[in-house]
Structure formats: C-alpha cells, structure tokens
Amino acid sequence: MQKILNQMKNPLLLRKLLFYFFLFFSSHLFAQSANNTCATATNLGTISGNLIATPGDLYLANSTNITGGLGCGNRADIWYQFTLPAGSTGAIITVTRKPTANQNIADNNTFIEVFNANVCANATGANSRGCADISIPRKHTGLTAGGTYYFRVYTTQSTSSQGPPDYGLNVYVVADNDNCTNMPTVLVPGATLDGSILGATNSGVAVGTCTGNPDDDVWYTFTAPYT
To answer: Which domains does the chain have, with CATH numbers?
Structure first.
C-alpha cells in the first residue's frame, strides 16, 4: 500500500493518470447518439395529442444513404419510430434546435424524412414520404391507423466541426386529431394536455352561439367522472 501511495506522489505518473481519465470520460460523455442507426431508432411508442419533448443530437452521427424514389440521399442522421393510436391516420412531427452560441445546424439545413415502413428493411427511397426542413412542424396524413412508422432527422452540415452541445434537438410527435372521424385524443379530467392546430381544417360544424371564423378545428373526447 505504501508503495502505491509513493507512486501516486510522482507528478509524471499523476499526469498520465489524469490524461487517461479525461480520455475515457470524454469518449463516453461525448459519444454519438444511441439512435444513430435505424436499427437502434428511439421508440416513441403509441403517440397521443400530448406534446412531449424527446431530446436528441446529431453530434458525430453516421450517414445513411437513402436513394431512389423520394429518398433524400446520404446524410448524417438519427432515427425514431412511433405508432399511431387506433383510428388516427395522421401525425405531426416538430423538431426544434437547442440554442447554443455555436450552433452548427439551422432550420434550413436540418430535415425530417418519414417512411411508409414498419421495419427498417422497408425504410428505403421507394417508401420515403419525402423530406422537409424543420422550420415549421410537418404534418403527415393518409397514414394507417394503429400503424408503426420510422423517420429520421438529418443535416447537410458537418456533425463534428463544433462541440457536442451544438447539435442538440428536441423532437415532438403528436397524433393528428383534425377530424371527429379520427380517434380524438382522450382527455383525462384534471390533467393538462398540449395540442396544436397546425394544418387543421374546417370540419363544417356551425359556430352556434360562439364567435369567430371556424376555419380550423381539432377534436377531443372525455368521459365525465360524475353524472
């Protein structure tokens, strides 16, 4: 024990130990995201109308080459999957950047690509629904109720020229409840729920005694706890 303590007093040995500790620590702290491939996509589960942020980042992201059809090419990306609730045939995907002083990604160089695919083998250009930047939330309709879908978030910029915090994102996916015929979000009495009227259309329901222009609406249901 005394021999070990004496060695620890050696400045050169101590510097070496600190160097290897920092190397180990930084390689784990600043590693690429776990959802760096389709096979390791973050599963968001069955989505609802609740707007919940899922953090992610594009730091050191690998590239996936999606060619043919509407595929958007060989891009550094991270992957997600979600399942629609029964009766809902649409989803709204929102991606926001975490602001930092040296942000390397921007709204016009970061994109969302959704696939008509419930397994990674089908996440191909032929099944791509196209790409759109993250400047606004993106609405996808005509999906299969209860179906599972994959999407990737990618950038056309380098994913290593800045520090890890400069590639941070928040990803939100909510079910589309634009029409009463879709399965509306069930509200739990006493609970709060975030929603969106992005892309909502007029359902043709008369305003009645209310005021305003009924040019868009979203729908919800709830069960009263008391009669």
So the answer is: 32-175 (2.60.120.510)
